[in-house]
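ugh finaly. both done.
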Amino acid sequence: EVTYEVTKVDGVEKSRKEVSRKTKKVAKNKITYTGSKAVVTTKEVTKTEEVAFQTREVENALLAEGVRRVKTAGQKGVRTIVETVTYTDGKETGREVKSNTITTPAVDEVVEVGTKKVVAPVVTTKEETKTEEVAFQTKEVTNPDLPEGTRRVKTAGQKGVRTIVETVTYTDGVETGRVEKSNTITTPAVDKIVEVGTKKVVAPVVTTKEETKTEEVAFQVKEVQNADLPEGSRQVKAVGKKGVRTIVYTVTYTDGVETGRVEKSNTITTPAVDEIVEVGTKKVASTTTNGDKKDPATTGNQAESTKKEETASQDKKALPSTGTAVSSLLSVIGLAFASLAAFVLRKKD
């Protein structure tokens, strides 16, 4: 026999602790002799019975009025009864209750009863519209003008639009239902068309050949000073000559059509010849008339002298460079004579 200390809160068992335990002795038959004939014996019989649980109700202000909810499930207990039974000549002749204890207490069932006043809910509905993309299909068509294995988009695909309208129900502002009202494709998708080539491809004929072209190379003009030429005069000493640049290309042809051009060489095959120009640096003395009025004859002589100088200068340009010194000397002498003639004429006047 075991004795427990049970702790309950609001009828609910929270803990159980063993207090004592007794070992029952094995029942032995008691033999009583009456006279020389009757045999009287006794033995103990143990039986158990269920103990029904109680149901307790507690109020809950958070539950709607009239609503019942089991907070703690009830559990049946166990009652243990020990009886002493007397037998005379093997027949039961008496039964006496030796003990009657609740060995397992029942657990009360706790039921919450709602007391909250229920207010009629506010139910509203509204329509919601949403759209979804509709995928386009891809279709292939053969094209005998395209090389076999080639794929080309003929028509780009475009996604469509599906429009869905739903009726949404709200109870006290909280969604409690949603029903699809309509579901239609408002913009149909456009199929993507892909052309697939079926033309048999023939290996192309590739050839190469070299092409040569020439370009002019401009000559440079270099100036050199000549102390025997009058200052400001210019004279070509050596005529410039253009050179020649030769360019060789390797040209590739595919099926007779040019498909590539690579420069193989680029060289100056005929160098240009620089043009040499002499620039005079000799100072030329100038004559003055002390403010006298120029005589027409003198002016004419001077003009003629100047013309002769220009002609002489032009002749010098045509002469070889070896005659440069002689030409310069003649020019100086001519200028001297012209000055002298002008002076004599002024004296005569």
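ok and the 2nd:
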Amino acid sequence: MRLFGVEMEPKEKEQETKRTKKRKSARLFGRDLVPERKRSKIKKTRSSSPPLPPAPLPFPLLQAIHDMEGRDQVFVTRKILEQSDTDAGQNRFFIPKSEVLWGVLTEEERRRVEGGGGVEAMVVDPRGWKYNMRLKKWVSLNKVVLNSGWRKLVDDNELMAEMDCVELWSFRADSKLCFALNVKRDQLQ
């Protein structure tokens, strides 16, 4: 093989790596040219303990779910509220990425959420109060949000950024998508 007018000889050369592999190299001007290894793009995560199981739902919340004839309760996610989740100018709650969330949606609901139009959902707070909201995907940010009523829930429950941890549960009432929101204050872990 010729490179820049110089004859090169391909040869197999064994390189020491964690897993011994044969890698191709070439010689140029009497020196071995070894292809550079690609670095993996694995994000390093902070070492932390495994996630805690969700707290039991408070009685008023359980009672509200029972009164709605709720079924199929599934824990979706836990999140410490961020400033943007409680900001008066932003009427939305960013839901952390969750495979569980997509698993509880019907095929039609998934299609509507993915399309950006969203689906109506009833959200029940820890006192059992109900709020009509919309679950939708903000396609431009590739994030799923609960909005169209989130601000009222924040105000009614006096939710505070960096102080409150919310646990989001999904359930069905008369086949309608519903969420239960449990708030844990002063127990951030």
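summary for the 2nd one i guess: Helices lie at 59-67, 83-86, 99-104, 107-114, 150-157.
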